[in-house]
Amino acid sequence: MPVQRPAPAYARIKDYVRRQIETGAWPAGSVIPSEHDLVKQFGVSRMTVHRALRELTADQLLSRVQGAGTFVNAKRYQSTLIQIRSIAAEIESRGDVHSSAVLLLERTTDPAALSTLGLTGNEYAYHSCIVHFENGEPIQVEDRYVNPHLYPRYLEQDFAQLTPSDYMTREAPLQRAEYVITARLPDAGIRQHLRMLAGDPCLVLQRRTWAHEQIATDVTLWHPGARFQFSGSF
Q1: pTM
Q2: Residue 147's domain is classified under what CATH number?
Q3: 125: exposed, middle or buried (C-beta count within 10 Å: 0-12, 13-18, 19+)?
Q4: Phi and psi torsions of 181, nearest 5°
Q5: Rounded distance, CA 221 to CA 177, Å?
Q6: Which InterPro entries match (predicted)?
Q7: Does residue 49 sit in helix, strand or coil?
Q8: How does pLDDT run across 71-109, given as a tens digit for each residue?
Q9: Is residue 2 part of a domain?
Q10: Are 196 and 151 members of one domain?
Q11: What is the pLDDT of residues 127-168, one digit of tens each?
């Protein structure tokens, strides 16, 4: 039977730092022990400690500020761009808990919304605005306009229990999508719902999707820039 070698010293230090962060012993924004203190604690060289902290910084768990120390970063939630998934599924895939609060659910005749959805001025659209939370922390404001011809029972859904994406995928699966991502300052209402400070930017995803050769929905997704990132691969 092969002998299992112990993990390298730098890897043990990385595991220790991760555990301190994950358990809340070192909360976001706190300064971690200095390299000198970690050298003494683990009985290793300064180079070993430096490598561990450098790799954790590359993983975006830490930020190193010259002359001030090394700080724990706020958790950055993420979403994939390659596949349209329910935000609840995104959150649950990380082992976290999703919840939501419905701010608005209505029928609208807003001309801009009708034009975006390819509807005429004599028709109407559905409009919803929902805040999504991960472990109780707000990470997305979803402002959505919906084609009622494709989703006639949209206003009847309980979106505190079911996400719009889940409902729409079940009723009329999406065929294609187009999207744009920008960095924008939110208005006071969105900033309040996302618990952001004045002047902090949002990452904003504007997405329009099609089903059955019709425009299905136009949605604007607002995310706190300091706590969120998009990712993808192909």
Answers
A1: 0.65
A2: 3.40.1410.10
A3: buried
A4: -115, 130
A5: 14
A6: Bact_HTH_transcr_reg, Chorismate_lyase_/UTRA_dom_sf, His_ut_repres, Tscrpt_reg_HTH_GntR, UTRA, WH-like_DNA-bd_sf, WH_DNA-bd_sf
A7: helix
A8: 887 665 545 444 566 888 888 888 889 999 999 999 999
A9: no
A10: yes
A11: 999 999 999 999 999 999 999 999 999 999 999 989 998 898
